[in-house]
Structure formats: C-alpha cells, structure tokens
Amino acid sequence: MKEDLLHFIWKYKKYPINGLISTMGEAVRVLATGTHNHLSGPDFFNAQVELNGQLWAGNVEIHIKSSDWYAHKHQEDANYDNVILHVVWEDDVSVFRKDGSEIATLSLQKYIPLSMLETYQQLFDSKNYKFINCEREFIGVDQFTKNNWLDRLFVERLEQKSIFVIHLLEHTKNDWEQVLFLMLLKTFGSKINGEIFVEIGKSINFSIIRKLYKKQLELSSLLFGQANLLKGIHEEDHYYKDLLREYTFLKHKFTLVSVFKSPEFFRLRPPNFPTIRLAQLSAIYAENNNLFHALIENETPNFSEILNVETADYWDTHFNFGKISKKSKKRLTDSFLNLLLINTIIPLKFTYQRYKGNVDYEALFKMMSIVKKEENSIIGNFEKLGAPIDNAKDSQTYLQLYNNYCKKDKCLDCAVGASLMNLKV
Fold it and tell me: Can you tell me the distance from the alpha carbon of 405 to that of 202, in angstroms, rounded to the nearest whole number?
C-alpha cells in the first residue's frame, strides 16, 4: 500500500458513500473531499465531513498507518491543528491534537475491494514493463481520454517553460524585448552553453544592443568580448583584430565586465560552436530593431525570413578564429529553426498572451503542429506502443508525459493510469 493510492481513493471517493464508520464508532459522511495539496501541510484543504450528523470543516491528512502522524511529528506542527479527519489504511494508534482532543480516524482497509489493490500492484510490477508501467495496456485506453489528457499535457509543458520566462521578466523589470534576447541566447547556446549564454546576455545592458542596430561588427565584438572569446593572439587574422579593437572601445565606453566563464567547444559539432552561434545571433539583431514585435506580437510572422540572416563573410571560411575551414554559409538549419520555435518563440508567445489575458490556444497548437517532431529514444518507444506522433506538438506532449509522469511513477496523476484504475480524472 502506498499513500498515492490512498490519496486517489479519497479524492475520487472510491469507497462506499454510505455506511462509513470511524474508529471511534462515529458515522462518517463525506460532503467535500477538499483541495488536494501537493506541497507541505495537510494533504487536503477545506474538506467538509459530517461526524454523527455534526458538520466539520477543515483539513484531512492521509497516512498508511495512523502512527505515521507521530513519525512525521505532525503533533508539533501548527499547520495540522485544523485536521478534522485522519484517513488511514491501518489504524494502529489513536491520534490527538495539541489540546488533547482525539482526531477522528477513518480506516479504509475494510472498504476497498481487493480487485483495486491487485490492479494497482500489477500497474507497478516491474516484471510487466520495459519502458513505462502501462505499456501493455496503453494502446487499449480510450482514445478520447488520451487525446484530452495529451492536450492538457501540452499546455502543462508550456506552463512549465513559462516559469523561466517569468524569472527573466523579473530580472529585466518586464522588458519583453530583453527577455526574448536572453531566451534566444539560451537556445543558441544549447544544453552545453545555454546557461553561460544567458549570463553573457545579462552582463550587457540591453540598451547597448538597441544602439548597435545595423552594426554587425560592433554587435559581434560585444558578444564575443563578453564571452571571453577575444583573449587569444591571432596576428594574421584581420577580422579578429577588428573585433578586438571594437570591443576594447565598447568595453571602455559602457564599463563592461565580461562573464566569469568562457563557453565550451568540447563535445560540440563545428556548426554548434559558440563562435558560430554568437555570430548568427549578432547578424539577427543587426537586421532587426524590434524583434519581439516581429516574432511574438505579429500574428503571422515569417520566421525563416526574420531569423535566417547571413553572418559576416569571415564565417564562410571559419568555425573559430584563426583556423580556415572549407567554405560554407553559416545559415540556421531547418532543424535549428524548429528548436527556436519549440524552446523560445512558442513558450514566449504563450507567456505573453497569458500576461495580456488572452491566450489563443488554437493558434499555438496549430503553430506547433506544423513543426517537425523531435526524434529520440523516448519518442521512438511511444511510437512502438502505437502512439501517433506526427509533429512537434505531439512529441513535446509525450516528452512531458514521460518525464513528469511515467518516469516518476506518477501513474495515478495521469489520465491513462487513472483510467486503468477505473478512476475518473
């Protein structure tokens, strides 16, 4: 027996509505189970329960054994003074409030059918699965149930990503243009350099970026210099020397302090080198003076036209300073543009629309639906189970499902797992 099962039994009233008796012999009638609390404090807030016809309003705490009340030291915590009912599986000790009054206890053990416990145990039996707990039953779950749940999961993923946006808004004092700049830096930095790229962005007063519109050399020198990438010696590299000269001037003019750590090159393919990514971002901002309006406020932006600008000619034959490479244009690839849409543009659109109080979910769904799906082992395994994953909306949704529910064994918080337990979510 686990507490998460008891939580669901209580929350969805999978016990007899009539005939409940407390361990003290009181008739128990549940009028409202309360609001499920996933943080510290009692498990359910604002419940309403009748005990022998007397209405009680307060909180409900749930444990496997009633003695867990003392094991968790709830008797010392004022947050539990308003508990009106202690719901347990096994009653092994009486529980009292600070004032000495006994808390009514409801033991569910004799009210729950064995079939429900067997279904729960089968769901979590590791012998039955290789990928996720419900992989054998997944394809058989009602498609309507799955579709509704997957739509909720996609919104949940956007909400999760919006937390970072809100954090940046606080840092920038609600400067949406600067937030976009920092979010682009994070995506351009990828997993390896995302955090340090954001720190580079934070080290620059965004008004400087605005002042350098149409000045790609100066913008590049600013980003490279703040990233500590202009500290080498390349006597024959005239472009490098131009960047260093410009950065020396900007650093003195704006009293700039570079970041404490340089971006990584190790384990990165040359197209993802920080030099290339910063050069590309410099080119984007050199060509766009109001990027937030163009990408976020505009209802029908041409993303490829706005973002796929040309870097300085120098980068046609370089991936790093002082090392000549085979000539190639360093444009953003379609796959990278998709990453920008998934990780920056759409989460920022969602957060901005919610900030304005008018989220166009249908438009966001449609936008993500035209983006190519991600390819990885998680998506591949869901496809083997028969899940139709056709675009980025689908792949993002299934990644949310796996990482936040399947991987954490939160099956009873998932509509698929709940349906298998005959629980309505």
Answer: 34
Tokens of 302: 């041409």
Q: How far is CA 317 from CA 74, 122, 406, in A?
A: 67, 60, 46
Q: How far is CA 344 from CA 127, 295, 311, 338, 352, in A?
A: 40, 10, 21, 10, 12
> Which pLDDT belongs to residue 425?
42
The angle subtended at Cα 67 by Cα 61 and Cα 68, nearest 5°, is 55
Amino acid at 98: K
CA–CA separation, 365 and 370 (whole Å): 9
Report the phi/psi class of residue 162: left, alpha or beta, with left for phi > 0 and alpha for psi in -120 to 50: alpha
Separation CA 97–CA 2 (nearest Å): 25
Residue 335 has pLDDT above 80, yes or no: yes
For residue 369, what are the CA distances in angstroms to 122, 165, 360? 35, 22, 14
Share of the chain above pLDDT 70, in %: 99
What is the C-alpha separation between 397 and 401, in angstroms, rounded? Answer: 6
400, 156 contact by CB (below 8 A): yes
Domain boundaries, the chain: 3-112, 175-332
Q: Rounded to an integer, what distance in angstroms lies between the CA atom of residue 285 and that of residue 271? A: 19
pLDDT band at residue 217, thresholds of 50, 70 and 90? Answer: very high
Which stretch of DSSP H or E encloses residue 89?
A: strand 83-90
Identity at 289, one-letter amino acid code? N
pLDDT in tens, 133-151: 999 999 999 999 999 999 9
Mean pLDDT of 418-425: 70
DSSP string, 363-423: HHHHHHHTSPPP-SHHHHHHHHTT----SHHHHHHHHHHIIIIITTT-GGGSHHHHHHTT-
